[in-house]
Design brief:
Pfam families: ER_lumen_recept (PF00810). By secondary structure, the protein is mostly helical. The protein contains eight helices and two strands, in the order ααααααβααβ. The radius of gyration is 18 Å and the shape is globular.
Length: 223
């Protein structure tokens, strides 16, 4: 059980580190250039719907604290991007052009139709958040591909998000092999989809960092 907790903790720490790297980049450069506001807004929606049970479901102090941190940091990033001075003036909506609203509706329908308890609004919201998290990075990846590269700190942010998902995938495999009756098809399928979306970025990230760790990640545009 400790080993499982260690894997999940590594995933949570990678996830949290991604927030701090992004906030550090925004504060250091006074710019949100290269960051997708649409992805950040989707993450706010993900965390607010997944952790609405924070008001009544207290599994542990760690669990409740992580819920608060994820919601607070995601809201903070969106606030700075929309209201921060001079950050908001550096946002480029032309590059952030992915039609993200087309991601939300299918996830809503899936959340209502395929969840762990069709009589529970919370379970529908939870399932919706799982489906939406799987694709929330798409506007950011689209923005990076459209621009042709990811600035150094932005690339670290995306890499840490992907690393968080990798740790969780390993944890799910381990639990399936060691725990009787462990079955979470919704989480597994959504997590696998999310991991696949990162594959091309991971390849370019590793390739770029092998040459120079401090240089932007170059993304080859589709022919």
């Amino acid at each position: 059980m400790g080993y499982i907790n260690a894997i999940r903790l590594a995933g949570d720490m990678s996830h949290m580190a991604s927030f701090f790297v992004l906030l550090f980049k925004i504060n250091k450069s006074k710019s949100v250039a290269g960051i997708s506001l649409k992805t950040q807004e989707l993450y706010v929606l993900v965390f607010c719907t997944r952790y609405v049970d924070i008001f009544w479901n207290h599994l542990s102090l760690y669990n409740s604290l992580m819920k608060v941190i994820f919601i607070a940091l995601s809201v903070m990033i969106v606030y700075v991007m929309r209201r921060g001075v001079p950050q908001r003036s550096t946002y480029n909506p032309e590059l952030d052009s992915f039609p993200h609203h087309w991601l939300v509706l299918p996830c809503v329908l899936l959340g209502v139709a395929i969840n762990q308890d069709p009589t529970s609004p919370f379970e529908m919201a939870w399932a919706f958040s799982i489906y939406l998290e799987a694709v929330a990075i798409m506007p950011q990846l689209h923005m990076v591909q459209k621009h042709g590269e990811a600035e150094n700190l932005t690339s670290h942010y995306i890499f840490l998000l992907g690393l968080y998902r990798v740790f969780y995938l390993v944890n799910w495999v381990y639990r399936y092999m060691t725990e009787d009756g462990y079955w979470q098809a919704i989480v597994w399928v959504s997590g696998a989809v999310q991991a696949v979306l990162y594959l091309d970025f991971f390849y370019n990230y590793v390739k770029s960092k092998q040459k120079d760790f401090y240089q932007p990640v170059q993304i080859a545009l589709p022919v």
